[in-house]
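Assess the record.
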Amino acid sequence: MELLDWSYTRGYNVKAYFSKFPQSLVIFRQIRDYYFVYQVKWSELDPVVTREDLEQMELMMNKELGLEAEYLKRKSRVQSM
């Protein structure tokens, strides 16, 4: 999967499109020092989005924004290890 395009929205959210889901808009919100998937405006033309897809999208977006280290240090990831 590749990040095709992204931009900021009002309220400092980020909207993005990914190659695996080109017809579905993914909205990210900031929490602390990283972004997480808030909403997927899914299109029936795309495959079903799995939890693994969401995690990959979050990692790709945070890497693009220079926040990969903060994302990898997040509390939920540390607790699940």
Observations:
- The helical segments are 51-64, 68-72, 75-80.
- The CA atoms of residues 34 and 65 lie 9 Å apart.
